[in-house]
Write a structure and sequence with these properties.
Oligomer: single chain
Shape: globular
CATH class of the largest domain: Alpha Beta
Radius of gyration: 26 Å
Distance between the termini: 55 Å
Structural class: alpha/beta
Number of helices: 16
Number of domains: 2
Helix content: 25-40%
Bound molecules: flavin-adenine dinucleotide
Length: 492
């Protein structure tokens, strides 16, 4: 780890945009140092948070270094993304990333290039509704879009394959080795600290300990495939590999654009075409997707699907016939963190854990979109507690952990002491959640105060011109935790 950090050049410090949070509430623990974790840490750092990135593996030993890494409009060429609702979210993430990667491509130090990619089809696109709607969505969002079957001949694609349609556009392509290095250096420059460690078991069980150890207000879980254990979720390996060939123009013409044929869902075929320039000197050839396979020791020497993938690419683009395979690293293998319902990006109920994992074959494409959204979730979570401290002129000045009544109710350490109060007040158990807890009469009045938690107590207090809730009321429902912190629940 120290070796890796030493190699990272320090670049000028980026401008911070502090959000006016107190020092204790500024620390966020990010679990995972792949593209999701590092981008999230960078976004948080740029918004004024102090971040600690904890991971058992760092670049170059993460899946993110293996990625192609072509920016793609969902679903990606490797397929396996079927959930319509999540596809819509993915599109928004991809749009955000496209804009940011386009900007980053102006700086060669990032390793991001904006280059043409052509997608090819065996049927006219107009005859395939899914391909047509994807193309219509794409054409208005990307630069230099062109729909033209003449691209097949222009790009010297094997005519024997009988391809009948194609479109191209400018897409971000990321040299992940350079980019991950750049991300780490940027994260360091905004004050991020790296800790090499493996967490075992469910994260929620260790939340309190980890937050105490790192003095962290919130945890963001960007553990990729590791989330199967950390979030006890069904995240499965979708194995892929890329053959690496030289692209220096010596034995084959230098290839300066990407070529793809998507995996077709349900066709029983796990292979697809994925040819992509990597930096200036390499070309990566893919691809395939093998679900539930987690062995990394596969290559041209021992795995027929890798050989078949290579043959497919050469047959598709005959110019590759004399390509020379990279002797130092002929094949790179990685496990896409596949989650059937797509990325999990949300707060885990009753915790201060934000999940950002399960990016499948699109982690690079999604990275800026998902990381910015995760950052917003952290800001919302932290801001809730801060406003409480700022506005209450002392009543709630020690309100440190629970931002909502729901959280207070279910927070295990606190439940013991506050339970009798809550029960007396809401009835036990509270019917259908807190917001439905009280419907009529005296209870309805109380509900007004409680709905949404302490935020509402405060806004009501503000609307009424200040301290309408007397301190004595607050104190009546005070609970003290073993660690000495004090919580207050305001009721009338
Ligand atoms: C062959 C291949 C080609 C691909 N091509 C593309 C492409 O063209 N475009 C694209 O967008 N995507 C592509 N991908 C997908 C992309 O690589 C992933 O979606 C992305 O890398 C996921 O990033 P991540 O940060 O979520 O996970 P990872 O990069 O896997 O990082 C996970 C991090 O969590 C840490 N961690 C996990 N468990 C624990 C634990 N218990 N304790 C501590 N730390 C833990 C790990 O050490 C690591 O640091 C491809 C993937 C493969 C394999």
């Amino acid at each position: 780890m120290d070796q890796i950090l030493k190699q990272i050049p320090r670049t000028p410090r980026l401008a911070h945009a502090p959000v006016g949070v107190s020092s204790r509430s500024r620390t966020v623990l990010v679990v995972g140092a792949g593209v999701s974790g590092l981008t999230t840490a960078l976004c948080l750092g740029r918004r004024g948070f102090t971040t600690v990135v904890l991971a058992d593996r760092f670049s170059p030993h993460v899946t993110s270094n293996v990625a192609g890494a072509l920016w793609e409009w969902p679903p990606a060429v490797c397929g396996h993304q079927f959930d319509q609702a999540s596809l819509e979210r993915s599109k928004a993430w991809c749009e955000t990333s496209y804009a940011i990667f386009s900007e980053l491509s102006l700086d060669p130090a990032t390793g991001v290039h904006l280059r043409p990619v052509t997608f090819y089809f065996s049927q006219p696109i107009g005859e395939t509704p899914r391909a047509l709607s994807k193309m219509e969505e794409l054409r208005v969002r990307v630069a230099n879009f062109r729909h033209d079957r003449a691209l097949i001949a222009e790009n010297e694609i094997n005519p024997a394959l009988g391809l009948r349609d194609a479109y191209s556009y400018l897409a971000p392509m990321v040299d992940t080795d350079t980019y991950m290095h750049w991300l780490m250096s940027q994260a360091l420059d905004v004050g991020c600290r790296f800790v090499e460690r493996k967490i075992t078991g469910a994260l929620r069980e260790q939340e309190a300990d980890l937050r105490r150890e790192f003095d962290a207000r919130t945890i963001v879980n960007c553990s990729g495939l590791g989330a199967a254990e950390l979030a006890e979720d069904e995240v499965r390996p979708l194995r892929g590999a890329l053959v690496r060939v030289r692209n220096d123009g010596r034995t084959t013409p230098r290839i300066t654009q990407a070529h793809c044929i998507s995996h077709t869902a349900g066709d029983g075929e796990e292979g697809f075409i994925f040819i992509l320039p990597r930096g200036d000197e390499r070309l990566v050839l893919g691809g395939f997707a093998e679900l539930n396979q987690s062995g990394l020791d596969i290559g041209l020497h021992n795995h027929e699907p890798v050989r078949a993938m290579y043959r497919r690419c050469v047959e598709f683009l005959p110019a590759l016939q004399h390509a020379v395979i990279d002797a130092d690293e002929p094949v790179r293998v990685g496990l896409r963190p596949f989650r059937k319902a797509n990325v999990r990006l949300e707060q885990e109920p009753n915790t201060r854990i934000i999940h950002n994992y399960g990016h499948g074959g699109s982690g690079v494409s999604f990275s800026w979109g998902t990381s910015l959204e995760a950052t917003e979730l952290v800001e919302a979570l932290v801001a809730a507690g801060i406003r409480i401290r700022q506005r209450t002129r002392g009543w709630l000045k020690r309100y440190e952990t629970c931002s909502t009544i729901r959280e207070l109710l279910t927070w295990p350490e606190n439940t013991r002491s506050s339970r009798p109060v809550i029960d007396r007040w809401l009835g036990n158990p509270p019917p259908r959640g807190i917001s439905d807890a009280v419907a009529t009469g005296r209870r309805a009045r109380r509900q007004t105060v409680l709905r949404g938690g302490v935020q509402d107590i405060l806004s009501r207090s503000n609307a009424d011109g200040g301290d309408t809730l007397p301190e004595s009321t607050m104190r009546r429902y005070k609970t003290t935790r073993p660690n000495g912190l004090v919580d207050y629940v305001a009721v009338e």
